[in-house]
Amino acid sequence: MARIVIVDDDELVCAIVARTLTPLGHVVLPVRDGEDALDSLWESNPDLVILDCALPGKTGLAILGEMRTSAMFRGLPVLILTARRSDWHVKVALEAGANAYVRKPFEPADLIAQVTALLSPPAPASTVADTLLDCDRLADLRGAVGIDDANRLLEMMLRDIATRTEAISGALLQGDFARAEREAHALRGASNGIGALDLALACLTIERGESRSSELLEGCALRTIAAIEQARTTPAALR
Prior knowledge:
Order of helices and strands: EHEHEHEHEHHHHHHH
Shape: globular
Strand order of the largest sheet: 2-1-3-4-5
CATH topology of the largest domain: Rossmann fold
CATH class of the largest domain: Alpha Beta
Structural class: alpha/beta
Number of domains: 2
Number of helices: 11
Oligomer: single chain
Helix content: 55-70%
Distance between the termini: 36 Å
Number of strands: 5
Largest sheet: 5 strands, parallel
């Protein structure tokens, strides 16, 4: 199950997208105005954004540009869904940071195929260190909020990893899989935000019900905590 935000001012399009994706187990959250888009992303912590280009308040490409300069949303998959027909518009959207492009009117099967591909786990990175903690993502975080605030955020993340990992392990032990999946979703979003890719992937296996054991998650959490501690005490890691 994935949480998907669709930003489109057309109520019918939002309804069609929801009707197409909800039977697959996804939660579809509509946003009708471009000005509300980024606030909605912070509130909902989605796995995927479906974005129209022509929006009231703020254009889809403007929203996409802000997402790609944000440490939190730079890696969030974005599917452009628009009535614009030219190949030039496709090129502009992809160069702006879109991951995929579907033209309206669309076939449900085409939308499902694109969404499924975007939600698939990414290919492993080249090194273990890169997937444990992404230094580029940490550098973006420092650039956005400053090194002191970045360290404070990492300290909060340390507590969040420990607390949520314990909650997930306890829920799995008690057979409360729904709670485990909710906690895993929350931890995955926070992990992606700082580039803790291994931890995010471990959370995803629990969130999707692919694993009912906490062993992989607990080991990954310990390694991630150690990497964050090192990053906090090594300023160069945040530069």
